[in-house]
Amino acid sequence: VDAVDYLRERVLAGELSREQLLAAFGWNRARLSEIMAKRRGLALEPIRYLRFELGLDADTLLRPVQIEKPITRKPV
User: Fold this and answer.
1) pLDDT digits (tens, 9 = 90+) for 14-24
2) What whole-number distance in Å separates Cα of residue 66 and Cα of residue 59?
């Protein structure tokens, strides 16, 4: 179980709401979507928020996420 799977389990168990996740990621819906789709890993600040404000397990949140389809930027 990586950090994203852990967050999904908490949402399905009713322990975590979408609004709480949005707050953890600075109300940035695009960023949250990228993370939940495993296109981006979790940064330290959201992990701190999820741990200290919401009481989630830090050890699980720190587990590496296997990026399935990385975000690529097109050259300008």
Assistant:
1) 999 999 999 99
2) 16
